[in-house]
Amino acid sequence: MSNPYLTATKPDPVDWHELTPCRDDPDAWFPDAAKDAADAILVCRVCPFRRECAQEALDTGATYGVWAGVLLDPKTIKANRRRLKRTAR
Ligand code: SF4
Predict the structure, then answer these.
(1) Domain count, the chain
(2) 36 assigned to some structural domain
(3) Which is the closest atom of ligand 1 to the Cα of 65?
(4) Is residue 63 in a domain?
(5) Ligand 1: which residue has its CA nearest to atom 8?
(6) How far is residue 23's CA from residue 60's CA, in Å, rounded to a whole number?
(7) Considering the domain boundaries, does residue 15 fall inside one?
(8) CA-CA-CA-CA torsion for 10, 11, 17, 19, nearest 10 degrees?
(9) Could you give the C-alpha distances from 11 to 8, 25, 28, in angstroms and in order?
(10) Residue 36: burial class (beta carbons within 10 Å; 0-12, 13-18, 19+)
């Protein structure tokens, strides 16, 4: 007979992606024009997942969209990546 306390599995940890404020409106974080990114950037400033988000942008090599409050633009990607690295620390 097995002990149910020893065989019970831990619940899966919550994936932070499921809790982000940008989850329900992803289009706002990938605007067609930079001027339309202001609201998303403001939300990012108070997001509790900025650090994880910045690290994910760096890990995935993201080049477009708002990540951790940084609007990524292929023309300024070097400066953007420096900002993401500072946030990811
Ligand atoms: S910091 Fe990242 S996870 Fe948080 S709202 Fe901004 S884009 Fe979404």
Answers:
(1) 1
(2) yes
(3) 7
(4) yes
(5) 22
(6) 18
(7) no
(8) -130
(9) 9, 28, 32
(10) middle
Question: Does residue 31's CB lie within 6 angstroms of at least one atom of ligand 1?
Answer: no
Tens of pLDDT, residue by residue over 52-72, are 999 999 999 999 999 999 999
The domain in which residue 44 lies consists of 27-88
**Residue 1 reports pLDDT greater than 90:** no
What's the pTM?
0.84
pLDDT digits (tens, 9 = 90+) for 6-48: 777 777 788 999 999 999 999 999 999 999 999 999 999 999 9
Which two three-digit tokens encode residue 4?
């149910």
**Alpha-carbon distance values, 74 to 7, 78, 80 (Å):** 50, 9, 9
Q: Which helix (H) or strand (E) holds 68?
A: none
Residue nearest to atom 5 of ligand 1 (CA): 44
